[in-house]
Structures are given as structure tokens and as C-alpha cells.
Amino acid sequence: MASVPSLASSVNQRVADALASALPEAGATDPLLRRSDRADFQANGILALAKKAKANPRELAADVVGAIPTGDLIQEIEVSGPGFLNITITDRAIIETLAARAADDRLGVPYAQNAGTTVIDYAQPNVAKEMHVGHLRSAVIGAAMVEILEFTGEKVIRRHHIGDWGTQFGMLIQYLLEHPHELDHKADGGEEVSGEEAMSNLNRLYKASRALFDSDEEFKTRARARVVDLQAGDPETLAMWQRFVDESKIYFYSVFHKLDMDIQDPDVVGESGYNDMLAETCKLLEDSGVAVRSNGALCVFFDEYKGPDGNPTPLIVQKSDGGFGYAATDLSAIRNRVGELKADTLIYVVDARQSLHFKMVFETARRAGWLNDGVKAVQLAFGTVLGKDGKPFKTREGETVRLVDLLDEAVERATAVVREKSEKIGLSEEEIVSNGQYVGIGAVKYADLSTSAGRDYKFDLDQMVSLTGDTSVYLQYAYARNRSILRKAGETRPVAHPELALAPAERALGLHIDQFGEVVADAAAEYAPHKVAAFLFQLATLYSTFFDQCPVLKADTAEQMENRLFLCDLTARTLTKGMALLGIRTPERL
Ligand code: ARG
């Protein structure tokens, strides 16, 4: 089935068009059409228009009412208050519009008109380090943005900017060179190493090398010299470095797998991927005067960024010892992403605590001409994950919580919830286990995505796997219940019947489903996956009211049953698609 954009215009769009033709002098003025409690929609745009035309708003509104034909689309239109329009849609128009959506495999969601190329930087853990909740947020929010943008037709290039470069590798590599068998998997009998084992190997090596580094001056000197070899591309050093990266990747991929996320190797382009560009980036900045030498370091200064002492805080591109830092890598990455990958949008899904870094990096890139007016660079900054006590999430011992432990616990709790309910519907043990994963991981993702990214949120597993309230489990149950009705309907299939009169709960559900396309467009334009989450929660809530008030299997007539099944089916498809945009699965039986 192809997308049929002309048929798939929403009721909202159709009303806006009708208003525009009733009042041609309004031109491109926004009718400010909103869903309303009093009628289906309220249009508030007349007020601004009247002001501009120095007309009486109520009179102008009355003119519109007179010029709008009622019948097919609009059942009733009346002036209210100072010049608002209250608009009620016909039952027929609701079902017809939905039928057009249902006939389209994109559910009538149009492609964006101005689609371009976005490079999105997300899910960027650090080599030889444990992943924590900050990495979870970047991964979850980034993956949702990828799906949402791709759904609107944007070309999306993923970049996992992993921390795989820097001075800390000197110590690790030197240690491994001196103890070559410590990462030798064949030697310890195992062929395949699990993610957990990989991480524990890395932890062990990290601790051992750190201990040596702190206690042995000669090792320290050798480790420092090793950093120079690494940056110079010495083959033996690079080979050892590669072993750390590979071991870490085993671990990263195991965590991403747990998260039900598909991360592809070619998209993992870490800091090291820009190593060859660093010297040139610095030279270009220095030659153009964008960066200047200050106490030996290459710095970019800004009037607006000052430290607590009032002195300017520069962006340090190259340290006085010649080493390149985080900023040099990010600036080189911009050159690559705009120059080679031809991106017109760059998104960085990174902790809000790195905001100053990105402001300075973007500004530097603009001064250098690597970012111009045709390219938008944004940090999709996310807030901190807090514990139940409202403080940054830590273990009781004050340590960073391991992401894997959290995910395992979420799955464990979810499995208990699923198991408790499973008897009634006779789930097999296998289904209980896989549902437990979908529910547990879904709970973690949804809790993250249902709050707007910039805000902090509390990591509270009890709340996350609760069956009531704004949780993914609630949505997953709404979906499964819906599917069970469709199964029970047997031979009777969903069929749209525009000739039928609708109950209020049917109208409310239908008009809500109809907004899916606009919600996706907004979420894409504003980088706001929480808008999709809010839409889905409202959808499940309206569906639940519909379910209580409108018998489906015991409907009055065969046509009514078919029409209600049609609403069920479209709700289910919208839920599955919406949840998939958020990276969450909807099991058929739960
Ligand atoms: N690896 C970094 C961290 O763990 C995040 C990288 C963000 N991306 C970037 N292009 N700087 O904090």
C-alpha cells in the first residue's frame, strides 16, 4: 500500500482548509484550531485577524459561520465568547478520515516537506568503562529521535561517538604490553566472551594498571611515552589499543542488546575516528585567527563565557604539551559530518552538563565557517537521573549505579508482574520470559521518554512497572487487550461504516487517533519524543473509556461491531507504531 497524502489529511487540516476558503482575506493567518471540550474544535484565529483588519471580531466570526457550508465535514459551527468559533465535526467525516488513514501503511502520516540529512550523535559510552544511567538516556532518547526522524522521511546518519581515545590509554596499553596474556581469551579456555566477562576483564586490567601507575614511577614514565606512540600511530601500540576497543565493544553490544537496540558497527565512529584530522583542524583554526596561543595552549575565547573569577573561560583545542582534547575531536567531527556526510542538521544527545562545551564548539565552528546558515547544530541536552531521594542516582555506597544491574532488575520486576497475570490467559514460560523483557525494558525507556528530555527524572522501578498511570505497561496492556478482542471477533473483521452514528467515546477516540501525524511532525521538529509518549498515553486512556462505554463484541448491530472493531484495529496499529518509534515492543498477548 502506498501512502496517500491527499486522502490522509487530518480532520484538523480539513477544517482549517474549510475556514480558509470561507475567509479568503485571512490568507496565511493561522486559524489557531485547537481540540476543545465544548465542541470538537475551537478556532481562535479570528481575534487576531479582526484586530489586524480593525473589524468587530464577533461580526467577522458570524461572517465565517455564514460562509461555511455544513453537511459533509462540519455539523455545527457557532460563534462563542469574543469571537471564537466552536466547531463540531460530523460522525461521517471522522470515520471517513480514519478509513483513509487505515488504508495507508504509514497510517496517513505524511512525509516532511523539507526532509534533509541529519547526523545524530547518541549512545556514546567510553571504552574500558562501565556504562551508567547517563549513557542510558543518550541511547534511549537518541534511538527514539532516529525512528521519529526517519519516519518523517529524513535521512538519518547515526554516529556513536564513543570515548576511545586519550591519555588514559597509555597506561592501559603499556600494562597490556607488559602482561600480554591478560586479555587472551583462548588461553583461559573460553572462546566466546560474554559482555559481563568482557567488562570484568577490563575492570581488572584498569585496576591493575592504575595501581602500577600510582606506585611505580618507571611504569608511569613508560605509560606516558606510550600515549605519544599511540597518537603517532605506532602499529604495535595501535594493535594493543584495538584489543581494548574490541573487548569494550563486546560489552557495549551486550548492553545495547539488553536494551533491545540495534547498534551497527559502521556507525560506531569514536573519538579516534577523527585522529587524522586533529592537527589540520588546529592549524586551520590558528591560521584563521579563530584560535590563539595562550600559555602554550591553543585556545578560542568568548566574551560571554567567564569563569567564577571573572576571567574568560576558553575552549582549549590543543593543550600546551601538544595533546589534543575532546574539543579538537568534536570540531573535527563537525568538519566530517558537514563536509563529507553533507548533513544539514547535527544533533548531539548529550548530558546537559556538557552544554557549555557544545555552545563553545558550535560557536567556534561557526567562526571557522564549518557551520554556516544552512546547517543547524543542536544539543538535545538531557537532565540527570535521580534516585528516589531526589539526589543524583547512586548506590548506597555512593557509587555510580551499573546500567546492567538496573536493566536486570527492571526485567526481573516486570517478569513478576507479567507472571502474576499470565495464568488467566495461559502464557507459556517462554512467553512470560520474553514479555518480561519487553515490559521491563519498555518501562525503563518509557519513563525516560515520557518526561521532556531537559528535565531530571526519578528512577523509580516500582512506579515504572505499575499497571496504572502513565507507564509503558499500561500502554502494552491496552494494546494486548485490544488484540484479544480482535481475536475473539472471529470471522467478523474491522470495517469502517461512515453512515453510523457515533457514541461520544468513539468520537473522542477517533479524533485523537487522527492527530497522530501532527504529533509525529511536532516531535520531529522539536526533537521532543515525549510528545509521542503523551499522545500514546492519551490514546490508551481514550481507548479504555471507549472499551468501557461501547461494547464491541456485543454491539447492537453487525455494522456497529465492524465499525468498533475498525476503531480497535486502528488504535492497535497506532499504538504499535507509536511505541516502535520509542523503541518499545507491544506483545500480542500479555
Ligand atoms: N563519551 C561521552 C561521555 O560519556 C559522550 C560523548 C558525546 N558526544 C560528543 N560528540 N562529544 O560523556
TrEMBL record:
It is an enzyme of class 6 (ligase). It catalyses: tRNA(Arg) + L-arginine + ATP = L-arginyl-tRNA(Arg) + AMP + diphosphate. It is found in: Cytoplasm. Signal peptide: none annotated. Keywords: Aminoacyl-tRNA synthetase, ATP-binding, Cytoplasm, Ligase, Nucleotide-binding, Protein biosynthesis. The keyword Ligase applies. Its EC number is 6.1.1.19. Residues 475-590 form the DALR anticodon binding domain. GO terms for molecular function: ligase activity. Pfam families: Arg_tRNA_synt_N (PF03485), DALR_1 (PF05746), tRNA-synt_1d (PF00750). Residues 9-89 form the Arginyl tRNA synthetase N-terminal domain. A motif ('HIGH' region) lies at residues 125-135. Its main location: cytoplasm. It comes from the Bacteria. Belongs to the class-I aminoacyl-tRNA synthetase family. Monomer. This is Arginine--tRNA ligase. It comes from Streptomyces cirratus. The lineage of its organism: Bacteria, Bacillati, Actinomycetota, Actinomycetes, Kitasatosporales.
